[in-house]
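anyone seen this seq b4? input:
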Amino acid sequence: MPLEIIMPRLCSDMGKGSVLRWFVQPGDLVESGETIAEVGLADAVFSLKSEARGRVVRLSLDEGAAAAAGVVLAVLEPEETSPARPEGSFCVLPPGGKKKSVKIRRLMERKMTESWQTIPHFFVTVAVDMTDVIRFRKDLNVTINDFILAAVARSLREHPWINSHWVDGEAVEQPDIHLSVAVATDRGLFYPVLRDCGHLSIQDIHRRARSLAEKAQHGSLAPEEMEGGTFTVSNMGMLGVESFGAIITPPQAAVLAVGTIKGEVVVDASGEPGIATMLRLTLSADHRVLDGADAAEFLATLKTYLEAPVTLVTCDYRKSGR
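predicted toks r here
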């Protein structure tokens, strides 16, 4: 029975994927596990492999052509029938080693251009004193970013409208908090998803975030580990960037951009100058869903949690009534 190789589905709201490169031609004998093609899906490139030995009968799409999920890309005459699937590893390096893929760049370019042209962005920035976070993170053996993620999750629980998607011309509040976390790698930028963050302790967030970051660095993220984000956190603090405005990933309504922590001269309530370790957070928001007051209130709550981080440590998310 002929084996049909189809365009895989990366996520439920995925648009078309494209065939970037064929590695076989009609008449070729394909071994089990052999790469048939590179396909572009969302912001990543995947190897499409065969799990059966067989001969290529037909290629249905030219290189560069796009097709929806489920469309037949090729037909093989196998010795034993088994479906082909994208390799579990999130990303395929181009020949030549650890260089950022031009193809990934092109896919990202299209998606970000669409976002910028269709979403009315506005930006709100707040400065946060991170002195206590720096003190607490050493005691708990977690990272500053773990505190930020925990504070974001708690703030989204208190301001659930920020955790919305723009779907079919209207804003839809999402019932669960799934944080997409930007991870820069040699292969490009990836967004693994921390699921159900509203019910995780900071230690749980630390373990999950570290595991996903390691998978991203090693190219072993599964497609389902990058699906379903409801809100994105992008941290460029480790690169020395003081502040920036990130582009929203559709259909999300907002993204938080995290800058670097640096010592600054501040004036206290009594008018006395001093040095504090300050961080700037910038919320990029979709003006179709959120207004300035929504953004300001969310950032005010986020600032409160980060400037009093003991509340993140002592609170049991799973028993919280909010």
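Residues 119-319 form a domain with the Chloramphenicol Acetyltransferase fold (CATH 3.30.559.10). Helices lie at 102-118, 131-140, 144-158, 202-218, 292-307, 310-314. kinda curious what u guys think
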